[in-house]
Amino acid sequence: MTAFPMQNMVTRKLENGARLDQRDRERLAELVRGWRALPPRSDIISHGDDPEFVHVILEGIACRYKILPDGRRSIMALLIPGDFCDMHVAILGRMDHGIGTLTPCRVVDIPRSEIEELLTDYPNIARAMWWATLVDEAVLREWLVNMGKRRADRQMAHLLCELYLRYASIGWNGDFSLPMTQEQLSDTLGITAVHAQRVVAGLRQDGLIGIEERQITIPDIARLMEFAEFDPDYLHLPS
C-alpha cells in the first residue's frame, strides 16, 4: 500500500466530514507530530486500561478486538491511516476491548484535554469528529449484516470494497494491496482460517482478486463491487 505524508492523514480523513479552514489544518498538524512506531501484534491500548489518550493511526493497519474465553480473537473494526481509535471512550473510564496493530504502525497519542479543546474551540473539527464517530457506527452495522446474512465469499469481497473506498477517501490513488494475513481476515469475518483460505482461493480463481507478494490486490473494483452487492452509502463519503 502506498505511503502517505503522515501529517495529512487526520486532515484528509476529517475533511470528508466537514470543511476545515487553515486554522483547523494547522492545529491538526500540531497534534500528529509526536508519533510512535509499533510493530505488528502490539497493543496500542489493552482491555481494562484507563483510556488516558485518544489514539490515531497515521500509518499501517490496526484493529479493535476482543479475546474470547477460549483464546480466539474477534476483530470488530479495522483502523487505517487517519482513523481515531474510540474517540469518546474516555467518557466510559475503562476500555472494554483492546486495540492492536496488524501491521507495522505509526500512532499518535492525543491527551483527553486536547480532544476536549478541539471539541470546544474548533467547531469545524468537532463536527468532523462527530461525523467520524457516526460513520464508525454505520460501518459496525454493516459488518453485523455481513456476518449475519452474506455468504463468506461475498462477505470478504464486501470488506475489500469497503477498504478500497476508505483508502481512496484519504488520498490513495495507486494500486490497492492489502497486507493482511488469512488469519487476520478470518478473525475479522468470523470464520475459520481454513475457510478464509478457501474463500481467498475461490475469489482468486474467479479473477475477482489477485495475490502479489502475499498481499491481496483488486484487478477490477467495479466487478468486485457487483459481486459483493456493495452499496457504499453507509460510508457517507462526499460524492
Describe the overall structure.
Keywords: DNA-binding, Transcription, Transcription regulation. It holds the Pfam family cNMP_binding. This is Crp/Fnr family transcriptional regulator. The protein has 239 residues and is α+β, with helices and mostly antiparallel strands. The chain folds into two domains: 137 residues, Sandwich (Jelly Rolls); 85 residues, Winged helix-like DNA-binding domain superfamily/Winged helix DNA-binding domain (Arc Repressor Mutant, subunit A), CATH 1.10.10. It has eight helices and eleven strands. The strands form three sheets. It has a four-stranded antiparallel beta sheet. A four-stranded antiparallel beta sheet has the order 2-7-4-5. It is globular and about 50 Å long.
Briefly, what is this?
With 239 residues, this protein is α+β, with helices and mostly antiparallel strands.
Summarize the helices and strands and which ones pair or pack:
Blueprint: H1 6-14, H2 22-31, E1 36-38, E2 43-45, E3 53-59, E4 62-67, E5 73-79, E6 84-85, E7 98-101, E8 105-111, H3 112-121, H4 123-149, H5 152-169, E9 177-178, H6 182-189, H7 193-205, E10 210-212, E11 215-217, H8 221-228
Antiparallel strand pairs: 1-8, 2-7, 3-6, 3-8, 4-5, 4-7, 9-11, 10-11
SSE run = HHEEEEEEEEHHHEHHEEH
DSSP, total strands:
11
Given the structure, what is the number of helices?
8
Give the biggest beta sheet. 4 strands, antiparallel
Derived structural class:
alpha+beta
- Percent of residues in beta strands: 15-25%
Mean pLDDT: 92
Could you give the distance between the termini? 24 Å
* The CATH top-level class label of the largest domain: Mainly Beta
Shape: globular
The CATH topology assignment of the largest domain is Jelly Rolls
CATH architecture heading of the largest domain: Sandwich
Organism: Paracoccus aurantius
Pfam family, one: cNMP_binding
Keywords: DNA-binding, Transcription, Transcription regulation
Protein name: Crp/Fnr family transcriptional regulator
